[in-house]
């Protein structure tokens, strides 16, 4: 008799009293993989399947083992080709991919500039792989890929991001030929890549400022800023079949983690990281579990970066509640352009509801109920920049009474001011979780004479 995979996983976890994350550790796989099994989005394959069967045998539930393919999975709303694939790109593999790509432009560009050329290409690869997954989903619906593409040409809203054919990765990488119109045929690979990002932005205006941040064909003093040979090397590194970046091939905040690695590895050492930093995965999950999001609630991160904490809150809800009838609504504000762009893309790719805006939350909070009142949220989570200086007038002339009514006006670094921002943004019965530097205690909330 067939058993639903979701039921099998839940019964196994219940019997062993394990969370999804603990089961993932037991099977030596990722939390995201277990989450997809339990939500009917993937089925165990390869070594993961063997490990799961062995664990079922160990607890006396061998009759539920999957070796005879007696497990059925539910059909997800959006499904990619090969939903049986359960392995995701590990952090180590991601870093190796980015390192290999960086090696291809080493010598032509200074290290802090690596991300300016690599990250847009990673964006294109990610968008193209996700698009391919969605075409496969539509192919299952319409019976033939050609039919699915015809329907998609007529209605781009059927996919998260529509990618024009010349901008799809097989064409970008040269693995698929494209007959360019004579008056549009690029003369160099750099020109082709610049044309590619412009075509994607034209089809998806919300990506403006996200992937079109560099001219791959830029020339100065008669010399190309980066050669076609170097660009080809980066493309080949990203085209390695080990590095597929589709809907279920990477962690939800893959783009944020890629950006973090490029900053940490190539920019921070030369003081060019612009003060950007990211929350460790373990801390992010701890915050999400402490916040304990419920269906229909609203969660805010006023310094959201690439939206990693918000995404984890959403996943924590999915982990706990099998059926989501009222999604968690996510709100984030971010000052840094690159992180803001990644956050927006992450939200759309993962079907998460909410709004990401750009700006400085301390001097200009965007989520308001009125000109003198901040919007209140059920959950506020954040990891703001530590020891950050602000002009004292920001505190003294605050129209939202964030500081005076939350313990007094601070005159030093913004650590306590961020905590006051949290208190001013959370509902009376809401929950807040903020990461603060331990030095905030010794720095205090005022100057040395107070």
Structure notes:
There is one protein chain. By secondary structure, this protein is an alpha/beta fold. It has 3 domains: 3-72, lambda repressor-like DNA-binding domains (434 Repressor (Amino-terminal Domain), Orthogonal Bundle), CATH 1.10.260; 91-270, N6 adenine-specific DNA methyltransferase, N-terminal domain (Ferritin); 281-443, Rossmann fold, CATH 3.40.50. The protein has helices spanning 5-16, 20-27, 31-38, 46-58, 91-105, 114-142, 145-154, 169-172, 189-203, 228-238, 254-266, 281-291, 308-320, 337-349, 392-396, 415-425, 439-443, and strands spanning 3-4, 71-72, 219-220, 223-224, 298-301, 329-334, 353-358, 368-370, 373-374, 377-382, 426-434. The strands form 4 sheets. Strands 7-6-5-10-11 form a 5-stranded parallel β-sheet. The protein has a two-stranded parallel sheet with strand order 1-2. A hairpin with a 2-residue loop joins β3 (219-220) and β4. α2 crosses α3 (31-38), α6 packs across α7 and α12 (281-291) packs across α13 (308-320). It is globular and about 65 Å long. The chain starts with a strand and ends in a 7-residue tail after the last helix. The relative contact order is 0.09.
């Amino acid at each position: 008799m067939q058993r639903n995979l979701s039921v099998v996983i839940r019964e196994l976890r219940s019997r062993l009293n394990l969370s999804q994350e603990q089961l993932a550790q037991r099977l030596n796989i990722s939390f995201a993989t277990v989450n997809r099994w339990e939500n009917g989005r993937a089925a165990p394959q390869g070594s993961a399947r063997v490990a799961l069967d062995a664990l079922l045998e160990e607890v006396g539930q061998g009759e539920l083992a999957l070796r005879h393919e007696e497990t059925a999975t539910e059909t997800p709303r959006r499904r990619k080709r090969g939903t049986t694939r359960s392995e995701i790109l590990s952090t180590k593999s991601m870093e190796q991919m980015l390192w290999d790509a960086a090696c291809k432009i080493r010598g032509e560009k200074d290290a802090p500039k690596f991300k300016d050329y690599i990250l847009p290409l990673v964006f294109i690869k990610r968008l193209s792989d996700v698009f391919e997954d969605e075409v496969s989903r539509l192919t299952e619906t319409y019976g033939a890929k050609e039919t699915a593409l015809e329907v998609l040409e007529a209605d781009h809203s059927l996919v998260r991001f529509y990618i024009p054919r010349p901008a799809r990765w097989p064409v970008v990488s040269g693995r698929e030929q494209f007959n360019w119109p004579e008056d549009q045929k690029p003369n160099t690979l750099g020109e082709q890549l610049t044309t590619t990002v412009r075509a994607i932005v034209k089809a998806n205006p919300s990506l403006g400022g996200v992937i079109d941040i560099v001219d791959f064909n830029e020339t100065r003093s008669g010399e190309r800023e980066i050669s076609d040979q170097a660009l080809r090397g980066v493309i080949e590194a990203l085209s390695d079949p080990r590095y597929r970046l589709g809907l279920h091939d990477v962690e939800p905040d893959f783009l944020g983690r890629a950006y973090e690695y490029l900053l940490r590895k190539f920019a921070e050492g030369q003081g060019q990281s612009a003060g950007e930093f990211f929350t460790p995965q373990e801390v992010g999950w701890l915050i999400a579990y402490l916040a304990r999001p419920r269906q229909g609630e609203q969660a805010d991160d006023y310094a959201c970066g690439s939206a990693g904490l918000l995404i984890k809150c959403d996943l924590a809800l999915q982990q706990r509640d099998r059926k989501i009838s009222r999604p968690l609504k996510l709100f984030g504000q971010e000052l840094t352009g690159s992180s803001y762009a990644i956050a927006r893309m992450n939200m759309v790719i993962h079907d998460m509801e909410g709004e990401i805006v750009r700006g400085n939350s301390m001097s200009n909070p965007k989520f308001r109920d009125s000109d003198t009142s901040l919007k209140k949220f059920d959950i506020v989570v954040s990891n703001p920049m530590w020891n950050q200086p602000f002009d004292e007038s920001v505190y003294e002339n605050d129209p939202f009474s964030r500081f005076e009514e939350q313990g007094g006006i601070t005159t030093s670094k913004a650590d306590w001011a961020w905590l006051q921002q949290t208190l001013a943004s959370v509902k009376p019965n809401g929950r807040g979780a903020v990461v603060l530097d331990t030095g905030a205690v010794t720095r205090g909330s005022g100057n040395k004479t107070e």
